[in-house]
Amino acid sequence: MTRFGYTLMTEQSGPKSLVNYAVSAEAVGFDFEVSSDHYSPWLSAQGHAPYAWAVLGAVAQATERVEIATYVTCPTMRYHPAVIAQKAATLQQLSDGRFILGLGAGENLNEHVIGQGWPPVAQRQDMLEEAIEIIRALHTGELTTWEGAHFRVDSARVWDAPEAGVPIAVAVSSAAGAERFGALADHLITTEPEPSILDAWPSAAARRIGQVPICWGPDKAEAVATAHEQFRWFAGGWSVNADLPTPHAFEGASKFVRPEDVESQIACGPDLEQLADSIRTYASAGFTDVALVQVGDANQQQFLDEVAGDLLALLRE
């Protein structure tokens, strides 16, 4: 049975709102919650970028049942993998074992801020592989020293390491990536309902976690306008989105994206069947878990209070 999750979109909401949304999402029946981890929003119109780990710590205390996950964190530049290992272990303790560490090779938008440039994709993937090995080693609770091609760790130990460790999910965008990182991670994250990627993941028991944006609103035209204002960056695809450095760059790259272009990619408006159909595409492709993004902050609480329960019931029929 497919699990349905709720996305804490740090780019479009402030930290207190995100915690309140997390509580409402658990109450209405979502199975899990995922949080983006960005230093900047995609577009200036989104207007937010709180520190995801502080938000998730608060969410872990404010909720009781839902699983929580990063979707996703880059453990190679802005954060050293030894720091990620400590943060993930702490969050696993705070959530009583409900945390999944979602990792990825990152985007220039967030990682360039430390002033060390942006490596080519092959190097980023090598760095990610090494980072996962370091995190795994530290989650044993043993003293760890590491000398690798990209990272060093000197006599580090995670003192509050959970006995069962922390499950790791890795974001990939191709079958080759699924084959490579399937040997290192527990679960798969990917953003496209592409069966070849899911089939390439070596473990049949792994969770296959996807994400789909929707823009519910009582007026379809207003919902399309909101999706265009807030989410037109989505049209570029990950090969473009990984390399642009600033919200200004995304605004320039997406200035010719029309509202009708966004509407063709994101289900918008009050029709729950239309919204559900866009989500079912992922379930039909073989995803075990699908996280919804309700685009825009303005209707977020109304969506959770008045719509999400009916939408979940429709999806679970």
Radius of gyration: 19 Å
What order do the strands of the largest sheet run in, or round the barrel if closed?
A: 1-2-3-4-7-8-9-11
Q: Please report which band the strand proportion falls in: under 5%, 5-15%, 15-25%, 25-35%, 35-45% or over 45%.
A: 15-25%
> Main beta sheet: strand number and arrangement?
8 strands, parallel, barrel
- Mean model confidence by pLDDT: 96
Number of helices: 13
Task: Provide tags for this entry.
317 residues; alpha/beta; TIM Barrel; eight-stranded parallel β-barrel; two-stranded antiparallel ribbon; 11 strands; 43% helix
Structure description:
With 317 residues, this protein is of the alpha/beta class. It has a single domain (3-316), classed as TIM Barrel (Alpha-Beta Barrel). 43% of the residues lie in helices and 17% in strands. The chain has helices spanning 15-28, 52-62, 81-94, 108-111, 121-138, 175-181, 195-200, 220-231, 238-241, 247-253, 259-265, 272-285, 300-316; strands at 3-8, 32-35, 67-70, 99-103, 144-147, 152-156, 168-171, 187-189, 208-216, 267-269, 289-294. The strands form two sheets. The protein has an eight-stranded parallel barrel, surrounded by six helices. Strands 5-6 form a two-stranded antiparallel ribbon.
